[in-house]
Amino acid sequence: MAGVHDSVLIFLKSESFAQSLKKALETSGYRGTAVTTESLALTEAKTNVPSLIILDFHSSSIANFRRMRELHKVPIVA
Questions:
Q1: Are strands 7-11 and 52-55 parallel, antiparallel or unpaired?
Q2: I want to staple 18 with a disulfide (CB 3.0 to 4.6 A). Which of 3, 12, 61, 65 is the partner?
Q3: Kind and range of the H or E element at 70?
């Protein structure tokens, strides 16, 4: 089981799916943060560097996350 320090940033355009995924991750012991806009996702990633980032498959934001020095070692799943 994951420790409390394991956080996942979920950036999906579908709020209902993002919330469902967040709930499933939290049930497994992860701390999830779900956002639906790129600006909120980037702000959250800077403020609380996550252990993993989950992006919407159709998102073009992966390049913006990769440019952030704080996130250079954070895995991104798109």
A1: parallel
A2: 12
A3: none
- Please say if the pLDDT value at position 3 is more than 80: no
Return the higher-pLDDT residue of 3 and 10: 10
- Locate 38 and state its tokens: 């790129």
The Cα–Cα gap between 21 and 30 comes to 11
Helices (H), 8-47: 15-27, 38-47
Alpha-carbon torsion 54, 29, 36, 9, what sign? negative
- Which structure tokens are listed for 33? 């943060």
For tokens 């967040």, what's the residue? 22
pLDDT at 59 over 80: no
Specify whether the CB–CB gap between 34 and 54 falls below 8 A: no
- The overall pTM is greater than 0.70: yes
